[in-house]
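in:
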């Protein structure tokens, strides 16, 4: 394909993940000339089975499945905790939705008003009611299967587009213990088809949802990339943007490289940066100039600051009876019962009832050097009776957690790589401990032998990069407006979870999609 710039472009979108492609599709539908630039390749959908087979082989690491490149994707990590950035990001058309789990919840109402309601963090410049119409649209765009059985969820007007997936067998085991403990369980909204929809298959139960959905039942952003192309947008892959050229008030061009070593300038009237919570601030910092000596759109000094992620808390063990794990590759039941108990000392968290606890029999069979009856005995002894409960925990924004650029190391184009400085605060640790308490009570009521725990000392990230270009009304303490336009530049919008002022403890993609729809409306109105 040609990777030449598009003449007369109205909008240039940088990044072909869910935020960028939804904006591109919406603006192309409104008749605008749109070009999308993405750093990674366009993957062949017919190749998913091969990638699935690669994913289950122990010899392949997670980045290998989607052709990670150590030099292209280089980064550094500092701070209290190391951050394994490349474990859960994909560079390519579709972005990290190519291997996400697919859970899509709305933030709770208090998440938008953390300072006012919980006494910590900051308030968003919009509240739940402001985003509620876009949440409805986002669920239709992604194709969400869900039910209105969660008594703790925020109010909604419309049903989910498709029916929820039924509880799994192990969910029924947890339900008995939770009933004794008066803990409510409810369904999980998933961006995967519970029935055939819009030319995509219903889920057929491969069980390999992370990192590959071979059937295409799980949403990924190639859906909107292809829709945008059908409406006339141009999507250019393997076109990493090196910098944004600009004057004092507006962006003039995105300078990008191509595999043949050429550099091109994509001019447009409006620019949308949708590269995620790490690469968006990196691109802005790499685009420094005499007008913006500490980074583009960074008059507040907050570009890259307040990096947040969700933390994982978990516990599990063995039950001594069949639990049918690894038959379902995603969550079908959760509990948000304790979410809105959050205050200044303990944050919000949600409990997740696993369907993939313990080892996979396929992966077990591909390890070791035993055969025949010996292999069968090993599989029977180590598979089939595991249970596990996870939790997502909020991390508050702090300027001590940040993304910057590391001048001492460069990528394959000679640019400084992103550096992630990350640590945990005491409130996050206490919240993880509280989640562990609930998990232990459930497992003990179930009669499980607890064999593992992920607590404050060995916790890790959920790979939800948030907060590095905060939304707000005051240009002194935020980077973008409530419509996601940068305060400093009249024609540049930042779209994605980087604009989240706080993160809550809900998976962020549905909110990303809702904000992308909101931004597309603002961009369209600006013409």
């Amino acid at each position: 394909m040609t990777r030449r710039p598009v003449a007369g472009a109205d909008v240039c979108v940088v990044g072909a993940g869910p935020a960028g492609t939804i904006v591109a599709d919406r603006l192309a539908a409104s008749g605008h000339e749109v070009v999308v630039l993405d750093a990674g390749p366009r993957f062949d959908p017919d190749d998913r089975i091969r990638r699935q087979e690669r994913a289950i082989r122990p010899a392949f690491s997670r980045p290998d499945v989607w052709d990670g490149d150590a030099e292209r994707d280089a980064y550094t990590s500092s701070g209290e905790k190391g951050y394994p950035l490349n474990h859960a990001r994909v560079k390519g058309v579709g972005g990290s939705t190519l291997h996400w789990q697919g859970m899509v919840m709305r933030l709770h109402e208090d998440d938008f008003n953390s300072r006012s309601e919980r006494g910590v963090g900051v308030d968003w410049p919009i509240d739940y009611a402001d985003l509620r119409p876009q949440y409805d649209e986002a669920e239709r765009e992604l194709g969400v299967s869900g039910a209105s059985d969660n008594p703790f969820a925020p109010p909604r007007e419309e049903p989910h587009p498709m029916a929820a997936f039924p509880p799994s067998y192990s969910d029924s085991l947890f339900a008995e213990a939770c009933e004794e403990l008066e803990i409510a369980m409810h369904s999980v909204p998933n961006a995967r088809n519970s029935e055939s929809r819009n030319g995509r298959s219903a889920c057929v139960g491969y069980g390999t949802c992370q990192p590959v959905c071979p059937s295409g039942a799980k949403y990924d952003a190639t859906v909107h990339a292809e829709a945008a192309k059908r409406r006339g947008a141009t999507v250019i892959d393997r076109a990493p943007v090196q910098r944004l050229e600009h004057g004092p008030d507006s962006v003039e061009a995105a300078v990008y490289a191509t595999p043949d070593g050429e550099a091109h300038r994509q001019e447009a009237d409006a620019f949308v940066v949708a590269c995620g919570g790490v690469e968006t601030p990196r691109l802005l910092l790499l685009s420094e100039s005499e007008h913006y000596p500490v980074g583009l759109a960074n008059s507040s000094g907050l570009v890259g600051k307040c990096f947040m992620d969700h933390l994982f808390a978990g516990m599990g063990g063995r039950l001594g009876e069949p639990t049918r794990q690894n038959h379902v590759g995603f969550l079908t039941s959760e509990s948000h019962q304790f979410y809105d108990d959050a205050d200044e000392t303990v944050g919000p968290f949600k409990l997740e009832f696993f369907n993939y606890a313990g080892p996979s029999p396929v992966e077990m069979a591909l390890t070791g050097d035993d055969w025949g009856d010996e292999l069968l005995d090993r599989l029977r002894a180590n598979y089939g009776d595991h249970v596990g409960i996870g939790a997502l925990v909020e991390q508050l924004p702090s300027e001590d957690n940040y993304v910057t650029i590391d001048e001492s190391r460069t990528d394959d184009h000679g640019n400084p790589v992103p550096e992630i400085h990350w640590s945990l605060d005491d409130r996050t640790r206490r919240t993880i401990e509280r989640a562990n308490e609930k998990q232990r009570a459930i497992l003990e009521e179930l009669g499980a032998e607890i064999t593992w725990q992920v607590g404050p000392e060995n916790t890790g990230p959920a790979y939800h990069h948030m907060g590095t270009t905060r939304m707000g009304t005051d240009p002194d303490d935020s980077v973008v407006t409530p419509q996601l336009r940068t305060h400093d530049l009249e024609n540049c919008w930042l779209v994605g979870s980087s604009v989240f002022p706080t993160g809550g403890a809900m998976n962020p993609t549905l909110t990303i999609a809702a904000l992308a729809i909101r931004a597309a409306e603002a961009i369209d109105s600006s013409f």
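note: The longest helix spans residues 426-446.
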